[in-house]
Amino acid sequence: MPEEIAMTIRPRFLNRLLPCFALVTLLTGCAAFRAEPPEVALVGLQVENLTLSHAILTADLSLFNPNDFSINVRDVRYTLSINNIRVAQGTSLDGIRINAHQYGQMPLRLSTSYFNLLRLGPLLEQNKPLPYEISGEVTLGNYLVGSRSRSFSKKGTLDLSELSGKAAAPDATP
User: Fold this and answer.
1) pLDDT tens per residue across span 102-131
2) Which domain holds residue 63?
3) What angle do CA 88, 125, 85 make, to 5 degrees?
4) Does residue 168 form part of some domain?
Protein backbone atom coordinates (compact mmCIF):
# COMPACT_ATOMS: atom_id res chain seq x y z
CA MET A 1 0.00 0.00 0.00
CA PRO A 2 2.78 2.58 0.79
CA GLU A 3 4.30 1.85 -2.64
CA GLU A 4 0.98 2.72 -4.33
CA ILE A 5 0.86 6.04 -2.47
CA ALA A 6 4.46 6.82 -3.40
CA MET A 7 3.75 6.02 -7.05
CA THR A 8 0.80 8.44 -7.16
CA ILE A 9 2.71 11.19 -5.33
CA ARG A 10 5.74 11.09 -7.68
CA PRO A 11 3.79 11.83 -10.89
CA ARG A 12 1.94 14.70 -9.14
CA PHE A 13 5.23 16.09 -7.88
CA LEU A 14 6.81 15.81 -11.34
CA ASN A 15 3.73 17.36 -12.97
CA ARG A 16 4.14 20.37 -10.68
CA LEU A 17 7.91 20.54 -10.97
CA LEU A 18 8.04 20.48 -14.76
CA PRO A 19 5.97 23.67 -15.32
CA CYS A 20 8.01 25.47 -12.64
CA PHE A 21 11.24 24.45 -14.36
CA ALA A 22 9.86 25.56 -17.74
CA LEU A 23 8.80 28.93 -16.29
CA VAL A 24 12.23 29.59 -14.72
CA THR A 25 13.95 28.62 -17.97
CA LEU A 26 11.64 30.89 -19.98
CA LEU A 27 12.18 33.83 -17.63
CA THR A 28 15.97 33.54 -17.75
CA GLY A 29 15.80 33.35 -21.54
CA CYS A 30 13.57 36.42 -21.69
CA ALA A 31 16.28 38.48 -20.00
CA ALA A 32 18.19 38.32 -23.28
CA PHE A 33 15.26 39.98 -25.08
CA ARG A 34 14.95 42.93 -22.72
CA ALA A 35 18.65 43.36 -21.97
CA GLU A 36 20.57 46.38 -23.10
CA PRO A 37 23.71 45.37 -24.99
CA PRO A 38 26.98 45.69 -23.11
CA GLU A 39 29.16 48.72 -23.69
CA VAL A 40 32.24 47.60 -25.62
CA ALA A 41 35.76 49.03 -25.57
CA LEU A 42 39.08 47.81 -26.93
CA VAL A 43 41.62 47.98 -24.10
CA GLY A 44 44.70 46.29 -25.53
CA LEU A 45 46.29 44.72 -28.56
CA GLN A 46 49.35 42.46 -28.49
CA VAL A 47 51.29 40.40 -31.02
CA GLU A 48 50.90 36.74 -30.10
CA ASN A 49 52.65 34.95 -32.97
CA LEU A 50 54.15 35.63 -36.39
CA THR A 51 53.97 33.13 -39.25
CA LEU A 52 55.22 33.25 -42.81
CA SER A 53 51.91 34.61 -44.12
CA HIS A 54 50.25 36.53 -41.30
CA ALA A 55 50.37 37.81 -37.74
CA ILE A 56 48.27 36.49 -34.87
CA LEU A 57 47.19 39.23 -32.47
CA THR A 58 45.29 39.13 -29.18
CA ALA A 59 42.86 41.92 -28.45
CA ASP A 60 41.35 42.52 -25.03
CA LEU A 61 37.73 43.59 -25.19
CA SER A 62 36.15 45.22 -22.12
CA LEU A 63 32.39 44.73 -21.75
CA PHE A 64 30.26 46.70 -19.27
CA ASN A 65 26.80 45.39 -18.34
CA PRO A 66 24.47 48.43 -17.93
CA ASN A 67 21.53 46.22 -16.87
CA ASP A 68 20.13 45.60 -13.38
CA PHE A 69 20.63 41.85 -13.88
CA SER A 70 23.38 39.50 -15.04
CA ILE A 71 23.75 38.76 -18.74
CA ASN A 72 25.32 35.92 -20.65
CA VAL A 73 27.39 37.03 -23.62
CA ARG A 74 27.44 33.97 -25.90
CA ASP A 75 29.75 35.40 -28.51
CA VAL A 76 30.97 38.54 -30.22
CA ARG A 77 31.29 38.88 -33.99
CA TYR A 78 33.49 41.82 -34.82
CA THR A 79 35.42 43.84 -37.38
CA LEU A 80 38.43 45.85 -36.22
CA SER A 81 39.68 48.81 -38.23
CA ILE A 82 42.69 50.94 -37.32
CA ASN A 83 43.00 54.31 -39.05
CA ASN A 84 40.31 53.17 -41.54
CA ILE A 85 42.33 50.04 -42.45
CA ARG A 86 40.39 46.83 -41.81
CA VAL A 87 42.82 44.84 -39.68
CA ALA A 88 40.76 41.82 -38.69
CA GLN A 89 37.36 40.26 -38.33
CA GLY A 90 36.11 37.16 -36.61
CA THR A 91 34.15 35.61 -33.75
CA SER A 92 35.08 35.21 -30.10
CA LEU A 93 35.87 31.70 -28.94
CA ASP A 94 34.25 31.73 -25.48
CA GLY A 95 31.28 33.36 -23.84
CA ILE A 96 31.20 35.09 -20.46
CA ARG A 97 28.67 35.98 -17.79
CA ILE A 98 28.72 39.58 -16.56
CA ASN A 99 26.99 40.59 -13.32
CA ALA A 100 24.78 43.68 -13.13
CA HIS A 101 26.72 46.96 -13.49
CA GLN A 102 30.03 45.09 -13.69
CA TYR A 103 32.83 44.77 -16.24
CA GLY A 104 33.98 41.61 -17.94
CA GLN A 105 36.93 41.00 -20.24
CA MET A 106 36.88 38.87 -23.34
CA PRO A 107 40.08 38.07 -25.21
CA LEU A 108 39.76 37.98 -28.99
CA ARG A 109 42.19 36.22 -31.28
CA LEU A 110 42.85 38.13 -34.49
CA SER A 111 44.63 37.13 -37.63
CA THR A 112 45.88 39.83 -39.97
CA SER A 113 47.92 39.83 -43.12
CA TYR A 114 51.33 41.43 -43.32
CA PHE A 115 49.93 43.67 -46.04
CA ASN A 116 47.62 45.31 -43.50
CA LEU A 117 50.47 45.68 -41.02
CA LEU A 118 52.66 47.22 -43.74
CA ARG A 119 49.92 49.75 -44.41
CA LEU A 120 50.01 50.64 -40.70
CA GLY A 121 53.84 50.80 -40.68
CA PRO A 122 54.28 54.51 -41.48
CA LEU A 123 51.71 55.36 -38.83
CA LEU A 124 53.45 53.19 -36.22
CA GLU A 125 56.72 55.03 -36.83
CA GLN A 126 55.05 58.28 -35.77
CA ASN A 127 54.53 56.67 -32.34
CA LYS A 128 51.13 58.37 -31.90
CA PRO A 129 47.86 56.82 -30.77
CA LEU A 130 45.79 55.71 -33.74
CA PRO A 131 42.03 55.92 -34.20
CA TYR A 132 40.25 52.58 -34.17
CA GLU A 133 36.75 51.33 -34.69
CA ILE A 134 35.43 47.99 -33.55
CA SER A 135 31.94 47.07 -34.63
CA GLY A 136 29.82 43.97 -34.87
CA GLU A 137 27.22 42.03 -32.94
CA VAL A 138 27.00 40.74 -29.38
CA THR A 139 24.83 37.64 -28.90
CA LEU A 140 23.13 37.57 -25.50
CA GLY A 141 21.34 34.62 -23.92
CA ASN A 142 21.80 30.93 -23.30
CA TYR A 143 22.47 28.14 -25.76
CA LEU A 144 19.36 26.18 -24.74
CA VAL A 145 16.95 29.09 -24.47
CA GLY A 146 16.37 32.07 -26.75
CA SER A 147 19.15 34.43 -27.62
CA ARG A 148 19.31 37.80 -29.29
CA SER A 149 22.01 39.64 -31.19
CA ARG A 150 22.59 43.34 -30.63
CA SER A 151 24.77 45.56 -32.81
CA PHE A 152 27.59 47.68 -31.39
CA SER A 153 30.13 50.15 -32.66
CA LYS A 154 32.90 51.77 -30.63
CA LYS A 155 35.48 54.31 -31.71
CA GLY A 156 38.53 55.36 -29.77
CA THR A 157 42.30 55.65 -29.91
CA LEU A 158 44.83 52.91 -29.39
CA ASP A 159 48.54 53.14 -28.63
CA LEU A 160 50.23 50.62 -30.93
CA SER A 161 53.82 51.47 -30.02
CA GLU A 162 54.32 47.92 -28.67
CA LEU A 163 53.63 46.52 -32.15
CA SER A 164 56.51 48.50 -33.63
CA GLY A 165 58.89 47.32 -30.91
CA LYS A 166 59.28 50.79 -29.40
CA ALA A 167 58.56 51.30 -25.76
CA ALA A 168 56.24 54.11 -24.81
CA ALA A 169 58.02 57.13 -23.39
CA PRO A 170 57.71 57.50 -19.61
CA ASP A 171 55.62 60.33 -18.23
CA ALA A 172 57.82 63.46 -17.87
CA THR A 173 55.94 64.89 -14.89
CA PRO A 174 57.92 65.00 -11.60
Assistant:
1) 999 998 888 888 888 788 778 777 878 889
2) 2-158
3) 25
4) no
* Confidence at 26, pLDDT banded by 50, 70, 90: very low
CA distance 94 to 105: 11
The answer as to whether 167 is a domain residue is no
- 19 C-beta neighbours (distance < 10 Å), count: 9
Q: Per the domain annotation, does 60 fall within a domain?
A: yes
Residue 165 lies in a domain: no
Strand partners, 156: 132
Taking the C-alpha atoms of residue 158 and residue 156, their distance in angstroms, rounded to an integer, is: 7
HEC secondary structure over the chain: CHHHHHHHHHHHHHHHHHHHHHHHHHHHHHHHHHCCCCEEEEEEEEEEEECCCEEEEEEEEEEECCCCCCEEEEEEEEEEEECCEEEEEEECCCCEEECCCCEEEEEEEEEEEHHHHHHHHHHHHCCCCEEEEEEEEEEEECCCCCEEEEEEEEEEEECCCCCCCCCCCCCCCC
Total-model pTM: 0.64
